[in-house]
Amino acid sequence: MPTPAPHGIHKRPLLRDDVYTSIRDAIVDGTFGPGERLRDPELEQWLGVSRTPIREALLRLERAGLIIARPGRATIVAPLDNASTVSAQQVVAAMHELAARLAVPVLETDQLAVMTEANGRFARALGHDDVELALAADDDFHAVFVGACGNDMVPGVLDQAHPLLRRMERRRFSSHSARHSVTAHAEIIRLASLGDADGAALATRENWLSLGTGTEG
Description:
65% of the residues lie in helices and 3% in strands. It has helices spanning 16-28, 40-47, 51-63, 82-103, 109-127, 131-148, 153-173, 180-193, 197-209, and strands at residues 37-38, 67-68, 75-77. The protein folds into two domains: 16-77, Arc Repressor Mutant, subunit A (Orthogonal Bundle), CATH 1.10.10; 82-212, Four Helix Bundle (Hemerythrin (Met), subunit A), CATH 1.20.120.530. The model is unreliable at 7-11 and 213-217 (pLDDT under 50). With 217 residues, it is mostly helical. The chain has a three-stranded antiparallel beta sheet with strand order 1-3-2. It contains nine helices and three strands. It comes from Arthrobacter wenxiniae.
């Protein structure tokens, strides 16, 4: 199991959430590929932590559907499974739809400006085939509604469901079909600026549900 460079830059022991995030991101970005075996000693060496936070992180990753762990057998990265991804996509779309519906009535002008700026970065990143910057800009765009919606459960549900969908996003943002999302984002901004909460919510939902169809992302 090849691992990324050691986390030697950390001046303190990694917290449990840091361990989870590091392994999750390595799965999502393809460093640990589908079917790859994850060995505790190698993860411990990579992250510089004891076995306990590693096991806690793996339990969370199993609940998120990113790994398969069976007692007495190898722990492996879960294969790309269409049914599980679609299930995660439906949950993520529903949460973002709810966030938009709750956020639009209280949205400020500066928050709309943040969305516009993020969509501009998103378009430029796609134009340069920079998947990492595109993902970051897309996250910033959708984070405005999530942050403004006032429902503290929405981020928690997304944290559970979104990682499984992220692998699809990464593949989609590597293709030209993702460019349709720039237009979809602009329409969401337009509807939000008009105060059309239902319209913005439905457009947001469609943006997420279209991720795997080849038309949006």
